[in-house]
Write a structure and sequence with these properties.
Residues 1-75 form the TPM domain. Keywords: Membrane, Transmembrane, Transmembrane helix. The chain is an alpha+beta fold and 204 residues long. It has helices at residues 2-6, 42-58, 62-84, 106-126, 142-146, and strands at 17-22, 27-33, 133-138, 158-163, 195-203. It has a single domain, classed as Diaminopimelate Epimerase, Chain A, domain 1, CATH 3.10.310. Helix content is 35%, strand content 17%. The strands form 2 sheets. A 3-stranded antiparallel β-sheet has the order 1-2-5, covered by helices on one side. Helix 2 (42-58) runs antiparallel to helix 3 (62-84) and helix 3 packs antiparallel against helix 4 (106-126).
């Protein structure tokens, strides 16, 4: 539902990825658009959560878990693009520890650091309220252009993070999100919005 309402992904490519995190329900989900299912299938999405994110979430280190998961996603996309261009790169043999998005290039690493800082600032600013909020981070389009397409529409255009404290009612779980945010991000290069139902979810 969020893919359609937020028009996540680049128009005509549907190459978006949505990461949903609810600290109240202790659950994380990765939803993958049609255009990236060949690169990040259900099994790979599950491996990213299991190997790069859950250990941090169990310790309450949500920023680190998100940062690490984003780095793993960026590495997979970079590897797939390298293989398509004939310069095959392999992730084999890499330790499944904190990777961060640095593997996707210096610019991506810098952008990711800024994103995490913003998330942490918002976290500390709003933890006194019932609801931390919904943070939509637009990273595609211009970022994909600046990185020379290495990460493409870096994860389509949007990685959405949902962080909730107390105010998340649990009515319908993640499916309850979406009201009041529809359609606003469909301009420019954005305008995807088709998720093939692929991805993975885990509780901790």
């Amino acid at each position: 539902k969020l893919f359609k309402e937020w028009k996540i992904g680049k128009a005509g490519k549907d190459n978006g990825i949505l990461i949903l995190l609810s600290t109240d329900e202790q659950r994380v989900e990765i939803e993958v658009g049609y255009g990236l299912e060949g690169t990040i299938n259900d099994a790979k999405a599950g491996e990213i959560i299991d190997n790069y994110m859950l250990s941090f979430f169990k310790k309450g280190q949500f920023g680190e878990g998100l940062y690490n998961g984003m780095g793993a996603i960026a590495d997979l996309i970079k590897t797939a693009e390298s293989q398509e261009s004939g310069t095959e790169e392999s992730l084999g043999g890499q330790e499944k520890g904190p990777v961060g998005p640095g593997g996707g290039g210096g610019l991506w690493g810098g952008i990711a650091v800024v994103i995490i800082i913003i998330l942490l600032l918002l976290l500390f600013a709003f933890t006194s309220g019932r609801f931390l909020g919904l943070i939509g981070i637009i990273i595609g389009g211009g970022v994909g252009f600046l990185t020379g397409g290495m990460i493409g529409a870096i994860i389509g255009a949007v990685i959405g993070f949902m962080l909730s404290y107390g105010g998340y009612s649990g009515r319908g779980g993640f499916g309850g999100w979406g009201g009041g945010m529809s359609g606003g991000w469909g301009g420019g290069d954005f305008g995807g919005g088709r998720s093939g139902g692929g991805g993975a979810g885990r509780n901790w």
